[in-house]
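Q: Could you write out the predicted structure for this multi-component system? I'm mainly interested in how the pieces pack against one another.
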Amino acid sequence: MSSNHPGLSNNFSRSGEKFSWSKDNLRSIKNIISKYPKGREQSAVMPLLYLAQEQNNNWISIECIETIAETLNMPKIRVTEVASFYSMYNTRPVGENLVQICRTSPCWLRGSNKITKTICKETKCEINDTSDDNKFTVVEVECLGACSNGPMIQINNDFFEDLDEESTKKIIDNIKEGKPNVIGSQKGRRSSENA
Amino acid sequence: MSDDLINIKVNQKEIQVDKNLTVMQACEIAGEEIPRFCYHDKLSIAGNCRMCLVEIEKAPKLVSSCTMPLMDGMSIITNSEKVNAGRKGVMEFLLINHPLDCPICDQGGECDLQDQAMYYGFDKSRYKENKRAVDNKNMGPLVNTIMTRCIHCTRCVRFATEVAGVPELGMLGRGENAEITTYLEQSITSELSGNVIDLCPVGALTSKPYQFKARPWELKRTDSIDIFDSVGSNIRVDSRAEEILRVTPRTNEYINEEWISDKVRFNYDGYYQQRIDTPYIKEDQKLSISNWDESLKVLKDKLKTLKPLALIGEHVDLETGYAIKKFMSNYGKDNVECRTDNHTILESLDSYRFNTPLNDIENSDLIILVGTNPKIETPIINHKIFKAYNNDAKVFNIGENISLNYKTEYLGESLSSLNNENLIKALKKSSNPLMIIGSAFLNKIKNIKTLKSIFSYADKYKVITKEKNNLNFLNPYASRVGQLIIGNTTNNLCEPFSNLKKDNFKLVLSFGSEHIANQQFNNCFKVYFGHHGDDGAMGSDIVLPTPLYTEKNGTFVNIEGRPQEAKKCHNPIGSAKEEWSILKKLSDELSFEFIPNTFDQLRSELFDKYPVLSDYHEIITVENSTSITPDIEFEDCKAEYPVSNFYMSDVISKNSVTMAKCVEEIISTPSLLEKSA
């Protein structure tokens, strides 16, 4: 995976703004922590990183790490280790929509190059770049585990599968216009049933 | 007993071992050496270097022996072709990204990777792709990093978390991108941080002050003792010609295990700064260079007419102390004082030493710190308290609300906080409570009843029982316990220094004690025997150069009451002479009955007088003293801690450039976090 992926860098930066949990998140945190045995609250670090990323415009700043460390009463370096290990925690600011294009062999054989080109054209940004309007960040990644439905992309938490140039353009257009998208296969197939 | 033993075979040799061991430990018992990088017997098991592969019969693949528990009847093979090939494979992977810079690497010659590559390395590389390079990380003024050399064994990370108790190091990223770093590249704030240098099996973490200074095979090794705190950590001093180039620990499982504090490891550059190399005499309010004949003649004349008082400093060894005692006995009694900080004691040994053997601290379930900051006074003892804390011991603190690397419950600033309800409740529940009374209070006590009350309190709450004595007294000075054993003190139990009858003495001899600068001696003729020009020397009328602890042989008794020897590493700087030989010369000229002709005679006379001291490395045993008062009463005194700055606590470390850098970068520089706030 390219080390330019926002989730795979070891360098964290400050946002410059104070990060404190929203009221909703405070409620969820209480809920999450209660799932773990007493004295093992630190196990909740991964769900909390997710919450922080959601609340902090899709990335983990040093302020987020410090708040999580304080909430779970664990060393900051331990939170940093987890956040840097997993690629789904972005260590630098990204656009509202993080578009991850799978380029591993099965998707590539089914034409992921074309999808990449279409996305770059439609979002007006290069690979590893964020668009000027801060709507999109586009990155190429290795296998996301939906090989039988390739080519596919992941936008934030959703998979879009069985893509061609047309459906890809539609998805991007819908996002731009704020319209909802169909998640999953764009050819109407359920899961990975025979096409 | 036999329940715990199982039969296994190592290379077809049958042995019986404890079933709780790992395969690696069993192999070691069987005498088979297993190569390893990540495994270290003082740290938790990680199992990530894969170097310790062995073959186990009936197991389909090679297994890493450090993580594998033993089973009855297991047959382990450590020397087969398969094992060798496996280890060679692991080594090839480790070397893929390891730079070939051994010729310029400080670890060269004492590098685990280099050594093991001799056995398992390939002579050429099959790797054609780009090697990875990693940015060096800042870890502070002591630890130098060349992170491309790192093989990700995580020993340093585990050390920082488990031993030093400062979880500041970590491994970021994964796979190809894994990097060891401190949080936001801040300096490590531990007093034990230098030990990661010894732990690092490659040259990724090396000593900054020792960088490019020497090769291990050109160094002369001398066994010595850490005299910068009272623990008496065992050290080895490495020197070339007349210069000490580095200080590393010697393993002593009873005292420092494998660790030493950063102060003794790095302050050796201070040994050669501001040294007094020749005698000085004060003329017209200014010290001017003199010579031995002249200065001793002046001193002799003074000694003929004036009644002297001897002050003993914190770095004075026992032989010197004994010579001083013998010399001063010609002038009567009560004229030698080592408790220049007003340290209150009772007569018996158990009222001024650490009565619990240091290794037993970790077995305690309740620790009360009374007027002591072990983190900066004695980092090794702090590590042992941290071990107890990790075994679920509760730690209480009385005095100032100091910050330590573990949680304490703060009870209050005066001794009477010992009567705190929470504490009493916890004491009653505790099965092995331990008290540490520090100098912050001991030096302030005005009424001996208070100290006796502490004994009664300890007796009442089972800190002292017939089997054990867990009432401990902690002072940070290496010389103190030994000097008190040979009786180099006056008979005032409380405030000995303040109560000295100043009018009686017109001549003060200070043996490395800075307290000679105290204004109460303003009317006295002052003579300073020492090695560093500081306050003590500046204010004196005669300054006589004496050798540093590395420049003479000497015995020190550590805080537990364990005599140990510090050996001479090189000749004294300048014209420095050992104290006993100066005193010998003086007493010959004054026709006193004195002092043997050689150091060995002096030492054997000392041992004849105090046979317990000759038993090196054994703790002196005493009966529990019975100084118990029926009513417990604590006076109100304010804690004043003897050490406020770990890196600059004595004349030697004050003159060390490395220690000055530590103060600047670790203590004075606010962390990045505070900067941004």
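A: Regarding packing and overall arrangement: The mean pLDDT of chain A is 92.
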